[in-house]
Write a structure and sequence with these properties.
Mean pLDDT: 91
Strand order of the largest sheet: 6-5-4-7
Helix content: 40-55%
Oligomer: single chain
Radius of gyration: 17 Å
Low-confidence stretches: none
Number of helices: 9
Structural class: alpha+beta
């Protein structure tokens, strides 16, 4: 199945499971844990995980008596799917933030904070934050990636809860190399 066809035919539960795995990139997740977290039947989660594993989108690892799943970030299709999943959340931000496309590599709206990674116009970002009442959080890619590797609570919550406005694929790349 082609990437486009796969993305267009994802069920709601497949999207929810992929979204969960994308937003928890350093976590190995069990079928049971995903089912509980997403309130989806274990049978449905099992079927979806096995299909995604068969398509090489997920990797599984047996630890003790459990089977744990992660995204196969060595697969280019997985990276595109992850960016596609993150792009879906971008529909939930104020449209006037679209001007961030020209001034930062990655922008994420996280609660009342605007997170910018690899920005090039700090004054414009300050202006946007002041206009909208957002707290500004600015990082270089290296800083963000280093904090992600350390499982920094704020950074993991930014990925888990934030709405990516700009740079879905760039963010996936950062998570892949963390």
């Amino acid at each position: 199945m082609t990437l486009i066809r796969k993305m267009l035919t994802l069920s709601e539960n497949e999207v929810r499971i992929l979204d969960f795995l994308v937003r928890n990139p350093l976590q190995k997740s069990s079928m049971r844990g995903i089912a509980i977290q997403l309130k989806v039947s274990p049978a449905s989660v099992h079927t979806i995980l096995k299909e995604l594993e068969k398509q090489n989108i997920l990797l599984s690892e047996k630890l003790g008596s459990g089977l744990f799943y992660t995204l196969n970030t060595d697969n280019k299709v997985t990276l595109y799917l992850a960016a596609f999943i993150l792009a879906q959340s971008s529909q939930k931000y104020p449209k006037e933030l679209e001007r961030l496309h020209d001034i930062t590599k990655i922008a994420i709206l996280w609660g009342k904070a605007l997170v910018c990674i690899d920005y090039n116009h700090k004054a414009l970002i300050n202006e946007v934050c002041k206009e909208k009442g957002y707290e500004e959080m600015m990082y270089t890619s290296d800083e963000f990636q280093s904090l992600l590797r350390k499982k920094d609570t704020a950074v993991t919550n930014i990925i888990r809860e934030g709405y990516v406005i700009v740079g879905e694929y760039a963010l996936v790349g950062l998570m892949h190399h963390a």
